[in-house]
């Protein structure tokens, strides 16, 4: 080696700037429009917001999804209503609530005053009942969308839930879309325990759904080996509850993944997906985003940590920044890319 | 109801007391807000989410000067087992204070405290408050066996009027707390009875109080999932001020209820006259 060799050696590349989480654009597609960020609460896990407001400013969430509201007051199921399971919770509350009239008069104005963007979860035992609830929300303050809880027994179909088949899901969405304020996105919330969640998703989108929420709880039973009886009280002839929490997350991610794949393949018109089922951390939320969700709902994790929705939002922002994403939307569905 | 805060609390003491564990937690801004009958909800497994639900425990003592609260718990399952294995210096995620506290008489009054097992935990702070106001207290502390009693010495330090019952007769009167109840109420001319313990005991105490026409406040123990009022798990049938019965949440509307308003015999059912019961037909 010659001492006269003039070659100069340098480090190539540059040390990257530390990711600036605050700079990540979290604007989230919602229906035909957007919300400031992708995080909401899952129906039935945040009440009507009053209790959570003690722990976090509701207006900082993308939206707050109410517990499911029905036309008439419902007493709910007998107790015990819950059983803890490994990484999960089996629950059967029976949609206890005071009905749509009470909600519109007593709860919604309170939420609107706090600047909360409210996604109202609705259910009914007939197509007409869904539509009546939707109509009652037209022109009301604070409402940014409707989420139809299709996992509700259909009185006209032997008590099978609407979500169990594409045709009944279609009918509910269509009826609500016809009467609801055209400005309000209508989301259909789908059940995972169906032969093809994609077929139900397609039917809902055909009927005019502006978005899809996935997933509702999975039906389950827990038996107490001391009392030798089911842990949930028999109520209306059932001891079945809905399983939620981290235990169901892979099922939920699968549903989002399959439906997003169908949209990419052109089998189903593209609408935003709101992903939920076991989200406890920002990385859980990122999984849903990568599978195809442009919004995420935090549910059962709230029972563990009342600040979970805001914490998940912060963690998701940091996770996106750490991976070099400038925008949330750049990550939506990325897991489907071939390379 | 209370105005709860969420804190990472430091364990400053964790020691056995009879069949139970005494846990002292230090966290800013909780102790000064605690009233007798309030509870704390502790996360037992924050690391991986395998045990999701918080465990609710009555606050036994609150010391605002030290920023500490004390809870007492029994090891009954995986969550309380995990808690019992924590060490001094460990952090526990706490939400407190929670719930609606015991109503307290505005002036001097004679009060009888009735507890089953470690149900006595919230009654000592309450007894302090009543005696501070010039009132007097008596206690009936009962349990299945002597090791399941909690606070007998604490009670004796407050008043000579302490009765102890055990179902196996190992200590004190053989039987349940209701056995000496009527006599004890009359002996101390109780204007109010405060009861805390299992539901069957509360129901029995409330019935005696109704017969004796004495006010009765009960601290219920219902299975909770969140402790903060969002999950709707811990409901029980209660007659409202308007005369209408509803399933109300023991975590926010309770855990301290007027015993005469609780529909004890309807626990675990949805009676047809409840608001919204009609809509429950079929499902």
Automatic annotation (TrEMBL), chain A:
It catalyses: (S)-dihydroorotate + A = orotate + AH2. The keyword Lyase does not apply. The keyword Flavoprotein applies. It is found in: Cytoplasm. Its cofactor is FMN. Keywords: Cytoplasm, Flavoprotein, FMN, Oxidoreductase, Pyrimidine biosynthesis. Its EC number is 1.3.-.-. GO terms for cellular component: cytoplasm. InterPro entries: Aldolase_TIM, DHO_dehydrogenase, DHOD_1B, Dihydroorotate_DH_1, Dihydroorotate_DH_1_2, Dihydroorotate_DH_cat, Dihydroorotate_DH_CS, Dihydroorotate_DH_I. GO terms for molecular function: dihydroorotate dehydrogenase activity. This is Dihydroorotate dehydrogenase. It comes from Streptacidiphilus pinicola. The lineage of its organism: Bacteria, Bacillati, Actinomycetota, Actinomycetes, Kitasatosporales.
Automatic annotation (TrEMBL), chain B:
It holds the Pfam family DHODB_Fe-S_bind. Keywords: 2Fe-2S, Electron transport, FAD, Flavoprotein, Iron, Iron-sulfur, Metal-binding, Transport. InterPro entries: Cyt_c3_hydrogenase_gsu, Dihydroorotate_DH_ele_sf, Dihydroorotate_DH_Fe-S-bd, FAD-bd_FR_type, FNR_nucleotide-bd, PyrK_electron_transfer, Riboflavin_synthase-like_b-brl. Its cofactor is [2Fe-2S] cluster; FAD. The keyword Ribonucleoprotein does not apply. The keyword Metal-binding applies. Gene3D superfamilies: Dihydroorotate dehydrogenase, electron transfer subunit, Nucleotide-binding domain of ferredoxin-NADP reductase (FNR) module, Translation factors. FAD binds at residues 79-80. GO terms for molecular function: 2 iron, 2 sulfur cluster binding; flavin adenine dinucleotide binding; metal ion binding; oxidoreductase activity. [2Fe-2S] cluster binds at residues 226, 231, 234, 251. Residues 4-104 form the FAD-binding FR-type domain. Binds 1 [2Fe-2S] cluster per subunit. Binds 1 FAD per subunit. One of its GO terms (biological process) is pyrimidine nucleotide biosynthetic process. Belongs to the PyrK family. This is Dihydroorotate dehydrogenase electron transfer subunit. It comes from Streptacidiphilus pinicola.
């Amino acid at each position: 080696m010659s001492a006269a060799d003039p070659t100069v050696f340098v480090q190539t590349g540059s040390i990257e700037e530390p990711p600036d989480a605050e700079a990540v654009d979290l604007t989230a597609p919602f229906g035909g429009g957007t919300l400031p960020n992708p995080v909401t609460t899952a129906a039935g896990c945040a009440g009507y917001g009053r209790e959570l407001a003690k722990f976090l400013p509701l207006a900082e969430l993308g939206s707050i999804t109410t517990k499911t509201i029905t036309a008439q007051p419902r007493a709910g199921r007998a107790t015990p209503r819950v059983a803890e399971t490994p990484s999960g919770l089996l629950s059967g509350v029976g949609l206890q609530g005071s009905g749509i009239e009470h909600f519109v008069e007593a709860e919604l104005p309170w939420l609107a005053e706090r600047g909360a963007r409210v996604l109202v979860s609705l259910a009914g035992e007939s197509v007409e009942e869904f539509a009546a609830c939707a109509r009652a929300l037209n022109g009301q303050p604070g409402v940014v969308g409707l989420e139809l809880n299709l996992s509700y027994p259909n009185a006209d179909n032997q008590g099978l839930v609407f979500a169990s088949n594409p045709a009944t899901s279609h009918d509910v969405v269509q009826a609500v879309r016809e009467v609801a304020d055209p400005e309000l996105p209508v989301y259909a919330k789908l059940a995972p325990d169906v032969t093809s969640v994609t077929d139900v998703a397609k039917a809902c989108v055909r009927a005019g759904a502006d978005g899809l929420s996935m997933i509702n709880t999975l039906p389950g039973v827990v038996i107490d080996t001391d009392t030798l009886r089911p842990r949930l009280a028999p109520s209306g002839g059932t001891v079945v509850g809905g399983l939620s929490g981290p235990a169901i997350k892979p099922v939920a991610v699968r549903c989002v993944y399959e439906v997003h794949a169908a949209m990419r393949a052109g089998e189903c018109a593209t609408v935003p997906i709101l992903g939920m089922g076991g989200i406890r951390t920002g990385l859980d939320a990122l999984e849903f985003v990568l599978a195809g969700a442009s919004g995420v709902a935090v549910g059962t994790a709230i029972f563990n940590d009342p600040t979970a929705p805001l914490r998940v939002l912060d963690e998701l922002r940091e996770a996106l920044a750490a991976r070099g994403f400038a925008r949330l939307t750049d990550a939506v569905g990325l897991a489907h890319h071939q390379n | 109801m209370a105005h709860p805060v969420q804190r990472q609390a430091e364990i400053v003491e964790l020691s056995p007391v009879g069949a139970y564990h005494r846990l002292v937690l230090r966290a800013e801004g909780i102790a000064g807000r605690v009233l007798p009958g309030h509870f704390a909800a502790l996360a037992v497994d924050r690391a991986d989410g395998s045990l999701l639900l918080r465990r609710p425990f009555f606050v036994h003592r609150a010391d605002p000067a030290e920023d500490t609260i004390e809870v007492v718990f029994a090891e009954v399952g995986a969550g309380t087992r995990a808690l019992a294995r924590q060490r001094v210096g460990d952090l526990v995620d706490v939400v407190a204070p929670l719930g609606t506290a015991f109503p307290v008489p505005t002036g001097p009054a004679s009060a009888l405290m009735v507890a089953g097992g470690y149900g006595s935990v919230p009654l000592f702070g309450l007894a302090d408050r009543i005696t501070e106001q010039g009132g007097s207290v008596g206690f009936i502390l009962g349990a299945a066996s002597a090791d399941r009693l909690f606070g007998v010495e604490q009670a004796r330090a407050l008043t000579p009027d302490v009765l102890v019952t055990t179902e196996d007769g190992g200590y004190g009167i053989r039987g349940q707390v209701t056995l000496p109840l009527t006599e004890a109420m009359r002996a101390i001319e109780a204007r109010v009875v405060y009861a805390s313990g299992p539901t069957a005991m509360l129901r029995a105490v409330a019935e005696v109080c109704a017969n004796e026409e004495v006010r009765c406040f009960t601290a219920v123990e219902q299975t909770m999932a969140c402790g903060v009022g969002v999950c709707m798990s811990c409901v029980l049938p209660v007659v409202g001020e308007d005369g209408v019965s509803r399933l109300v949440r023991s975590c926010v509307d309770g855990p301290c209820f007027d015993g005469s308003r609780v529909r004890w015999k309807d626990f675990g059912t949805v009676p047809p006259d409840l608001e919204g019961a009609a809509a429950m037909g079929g499902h």
